[in-house]
Amino acid sequence: MVTKPRNKVLIFRLTQDEYQALQTASSGARSLSDFARTKLLRSLGEPALDQQLLELKSTVLRIAELLEKES
User: Fold this and answer.
1) pTM to 2 decimals?
2) Looking at the chain, which runs of residues are DSSP E strands?
3) Which residue blocks in 1-71 are alpha helix, DSSP H?
4) Tally of helices (H runs) and strands (E runs) in the chain
């Protein structure tokens, strides 16, 4: 498998608690960096949580309306 070289660096600071939580969550990953990179890049393609909640609320309202019509 040929991959593009990773030659860019991103640095950010964490509290000790944040770092520990990240280490715990990354258990089983190849490395902490690989875990963080994968999670971050996957999240870019996902709708924001607010948008997901709005869609869920809309779906629940539609289901409620359908159930009312059936009664």
Assistant:
1) 0.57
2) none
3) 16-25, 32-44, 49-70
4) 3, 0
